[in-house]
Amino acid sequence: MSTVADQQQEPTGSSRSSARSTAAAADRLRFHTERRPGCVIVHLGGEIDFTTAEIMREHVTAEAMAHTAPCVVLDMAGVEFCDSSGLGALIAIDKAVRARQGRFVLAQLPEMLRRILNRTGLDGHIESSISVQGAVARHADRPAPRQGPRRKQHS
């Protein structure tokens, strides 16, 4: 799995605290990208917070745009924590993928994240699936949804 540190260049002219922050962030977020026909799958592990959310957003968005995949699946099984910065990053990814007429699906949501999405109402805006395989099978070959009714979780 890649880490946040793999995605950043060496800081030039920054303080030691910045370097420590980057190293600390690298220990808290891991990701691995898998490409399948019509679909990009990003497996995440660790914490999505203020120090890691933007890097995750940039990585997932870049992967989706580089491969023009109609389906982007974010495997959340390894996510241990997600704060409001993480939620903001998920919303930004969803908007970027939809703007290109694609589908964005969160798969294997931990209970903690499922509760957060439910309480914030985001479960009605960001699609989810019980499994990565279910997300790929159900969504990779279907046209992108239009803005509309609440989406349910699929297996």
Automatic annotation (TrEMBL):
Residues 29-139 form the STAS domain. Residues 14-26 have a biased composition (Low complexity). Transmembrane segments: none annotated. Residues 1-26, 133-155 are annotated as: Disordered. Belongs to the anti-sigma-factor antagonist family. The lineage of its organism: Bacteria, Bacillati, Actinomycetota, Actinomycetes, Streptosporangiales. This is Anti-sigma factor antagonist. PROSITE patterns: STAS. Residues 1-13 have a biased composition (Polar residues). Gene3D superfamilies: STAS domain (3.30.750.24). Pfam families: STAS (PF01740).
